[in-house]
Design goal:
Blueprint: E1 5-10, H1 15-27, E2 33-38, H2 39-56, E3 60-66, H3 73-83, E4 93-96, H4 100-106, H5 110-115, H6 128-138, H7 144-153, H8 157-163, H9 165-175
Helix pairs in contact: 1-7, 4-6, 4-8, 8-9
């Protein structure tokens, strides 16, 4: 039986359903407990305290962030390390290339894309919110969260791994083995 707990620190509201539905089931056999928290809700001090607490108890943590306006992954990791001094290992930082929406759109199967009259993309890594918004509008959704929930009903992990390099990296690094 696993002895360690895992804290996954996520950025926004759209990350939570994704991590609950897609990532958490892949990690339940590796960890005794899984905690998914938005670091924006915790604030800088609360986030540092949570990480320190997990480290002191010899538990694991992953800090997940979008690339946002930073153009390179090392630059984004440096920004996070400067902001959150409790992170002592940049390998604990997972940078989603471009935005979490690119992970959502990666998991849609070809049939869903064709149903909407959109050519299925080979790679969603750099699509950001553009493709997501286009798909959302074609599906008639007004709410990002509602559309995210709809995508998760038929999300395909293997398809997503093929279409998004940062998703594949996350799965291979944290969920395999």
């Amino acid at each position: 039986m696993p002895q360690k707990s895992l804290l996954i620190l996520i950025e926004g509201k759209g990350d939570k359903p994704f991590f609950d539905k897609v990532i958490k089931p892949l990690l339940v056999k590796r960890y005794y407990q899984l905690h998914i928290r938005q670091y924006s809700e915790l604030g800088k001090e609360g986030t540092n305290t949570a990480i320190d607490t997990f480290k002191k108890q010899d538990n694991d943590y992953i800090f997940v962030t979008d690339m946002d306006k930073i153009q390179c992954m090392p630059g984004k990791k440096q920004q996070i390390l400067a902001e959150f001094n409790s992170i002592d290992d940049n390998s604990k930082i997972m940078v989603v290339i471009r935005k979490i929406e690119s992970w959502y759109t990666a998991g849609l199967n070809d049939d869903k894309y064709q149903e909407l009259g959109i050519t299925p993309p080979n790679d969603t890594s750099k699509s950001g919110k553009g493709l997501f918004k286009k798909l959302m509008e074609k599906n008639g959704f007004k709410s990002d969260i509602d559309f995210m929930q709809e995508i998760l009903k038929s999300f395909d992990i293997e398809t997503a791994k093929q279409r998004n390099t940062s998703f594949r990296y996350f799965i291979d690094k944290y969920c395999s083995g």
